Amino acid sequence: MSNNQDQVAIVAGGAQNLGEHLSYRLAKEGYKVVVADLNFDNASQVAETIMQDYDTDALAVEVDVANEEKVTAMVEQVRERFDRIDVLVFNAGVAKSTKITSFELADWQSMVNVNLTGYFLCAREVAKVMVEQGSGNIIQINSKSGKVGSKHNAGYSSSKFGGVGLTQSLALDLAEHGVRVNSIMPGNLLKSPMFQSLIPSYAKKLGIAEDEVEKVYEEKVPMKRGCSYEDVANAVVFYASDQAAYMTGQSINVTGGQVMH
């Protein structure tokens, strides 16, 4: 733990669900954690919990990742408070599922804005600090839908495929500065509110009852279970560590064998 005691990690989209879990896990690993989220009340609660329950500092910041001014202000606030940024975990994301013939442009744009443009803006602003430091780690929480197309998920999958190209490009831009950039591709987080919100549309897509959807998705996985928050957190901690010092530009599957390329 002591290796990370002076290190600062931003979790964008860090105030609930997977992001909240990642915030606590990074705190447990000794990082000072910046909980950045559109929901400032939740972010504040998570930051308070970190300061109470873990022996480390935390800061809550309100941010809309798709808003350039807000992202710039967030990074400036973190810099003023901690004077450095060692890790960015970009976890902000939105998903809406529908067949292409009834896919609304507004839904498409919201997914591209948050999932892809938001990643671009956060990575760009954080990279400026990391380049000055000569070190840093940028980790995007992507999806297996960034590796293989997903039925009724044109907007989400496209935004996630774009994220892979952005990760590789950032890795090439930043390698000479000692900054590594990687994506993590989780399988279905079956218990997450995002997946749960999609169950009605998935039931319709598959022609089955809503209470059968989770089982169908488990059966698609060689390991016969969904992806857990801790599965993702383990990968994040590894990629942020020196154990992954020779790895950059990668899109790493955490899918129980469901996606292997």
From TrEMBL:
<dbReference type="InterPro" id="IPR020904">
    <property type="entry name" value="Sc_DH/Rdtase_CS"/>
</dbReference>
<protein>
    <submittedName>
        <fullName>Sorbitol-6-phosphate dehydrogenase</fullName>
        <ecNumber>1.1.1.140</ecNumber>
    </submittedName>
</protein>
<keyword id="KW-0560">Oxidoreductase</keyword>
<comment type="similarity">
    <text>Belongs to the short-chain dehydrogenases/reductases (SDR) family.</text>
</comment>
<dbReference type="InterPro" id="IPR050259">
    <property type="entry name" value="SDR"/>
</dbReference>
<dbReference type="GO" id="GO:0009010">
    <property type="term" value="F:sorbitol-6-phosphate 2-dehydrogenase activity"/>
</dbReference>
<dbReference type="InterPro" id="IPR002347">
    <property type="entry name" value="SDR_fam"/>
</dbReference>
<dbReference type="Pfam" id="PF00106">
    <property type="entry name" value="adh_short"/>
</dbReference>
<dbReference type="InterPro" id="IPR036291">
    <property type="entry name" value="NAD(P)-bd_dom_sf"/>
</dbReference>
